[in-house]
């Protein structure tokens, strides 16, 4: 990486310790290495990975309302984490919480396992499965303080994949883009049925014209009725 780009990145990530910075670097190397034989990310150029995956994942720590929710949470789950965004990046810089990373694809979990083992991230649990099934499982259902999720489904569907996992009083923070307000109006029935309530939509710019991140915060105000989530595939085929 050219020195000026390295310098700009170091400034963008200046809140990190040297150890965290080195861990992110190793994560980057493993991501690109594994990506050569499996589909983990379309973005591989170093600065773009750092900004669009790592920096974006950590943006939740920057706005006041999202940071407060995140800091108050002890037990966090990332639904549809893929190659670890945002959950694994957050776990690399925050050691005093328990993180669960869920994904439906085994091969992505294998990659995450390799990263966690090499970097000694023993506060991260990897769970293979569909959110619809995990949301009905005891030990997972209504047991998390916070669900985070990026690029998994529209809010009307995502609400059914995430709200059943959250305890009453907990939160879902979804990493959305400019379609957030449209998705929110489409999701009102789902929120009402699942015990969720729209609490905030916070927009932040990614540096260098890389687009806008809109965090949608949903609070869990009442228990989710037992029939939700419905069986795997139904939320997507027939959104509430
Ligand atoms: C487009 S990728 C996004 C990955 C990552 N969150 C990111 O932002 O780069 C969507 C991921 O969600 C997972 N996924 C989709 N539906 C799911 C479900 N119902 N339960 C668990 N994982 C799911 C997919 O396997 C995939 O890894």
From TrEMBL:
Its main location: cytoplasm. Keywords: Cytoplasm, Methyltransferase, rRNA processing, S-adenosyl-L-methionine, Transferase. GO terms for molecular function: rRNA (guanine-N7-)-methyltransferase activity. It is found in: Cytoplasm. It comes from the Bacteria. GO terms for cellular component: cytosol. InterPro entries: rRNA_ssu_MeTfrase_G, SAM-dependent_MTases_sf. SUPFAM superfamilies: S-adenosyl-L-methionine-dependent methyltransferases. CDD domains: AdoMet_MTases (cd02440). S-adenosyl-L-methionine binds at residues 80, 85, 131-132, 150. Pfam families: GidB. The keyword rRNA processing applies. Its EC number is 2.1.1.-. Belongs to the methyltransferase superfamily. RNA methyltransferase RsmG family. Specifically methylates the N7 position of guanine in position 535 of 16S rRNA. This is Ribosomal RNA small subunit methyltransferase G. It comes from Alicyclobacillus mengziensis.
């Amino acid at each position: 990486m050219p020195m000026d780009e390295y310098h700009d990145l170091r400034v963008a990530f200046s809140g990190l310790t040297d150890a965290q910075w080195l861990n992110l670097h190793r994560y980057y190397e493993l991501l690109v290495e594994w990506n050569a034989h499996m589909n983990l990310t379309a973005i591989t150029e170093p600065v773009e990975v750092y900004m669009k995956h790592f920096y974006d994942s950590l943006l939740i720590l920057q706005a006041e309302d999202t940071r407060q929710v995140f800091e108050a949470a002890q037990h966090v789950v990332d639904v549809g984490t893929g190659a670890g965004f945002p959950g694994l990046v957050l776990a690399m810089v925050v050691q005093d919480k328990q993180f669960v990373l869920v994904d439906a694809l085994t091969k992505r979990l294998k990659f995450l396992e390799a990263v966690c083992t090499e970097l000694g991230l023993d506060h991260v649990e990897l769970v293979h499965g569909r959110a619809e099934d995990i949301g009905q499982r005891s030990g997972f259902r209504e047991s998390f303080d916070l669900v985070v999720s990026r690029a998994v489904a529209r809010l009307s569907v995502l609400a059914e994949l995430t709200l059943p996992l959250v305890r009453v009083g907990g939160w879902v923070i979804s990493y959305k883009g400019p379609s957030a307000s449209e998705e929110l109006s489409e999701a009102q029935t789902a929120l009402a049925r699942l015990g969720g309530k729209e609490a905030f939509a916070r927009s932040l710019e990614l540096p260098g014209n890389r687009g806008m991140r809109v965090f949608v915060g949903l609070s869990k105000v009442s228990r989710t009725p037992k029939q939700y989530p419905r069986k795997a595939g139904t939320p997507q085929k027939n959104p509430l």
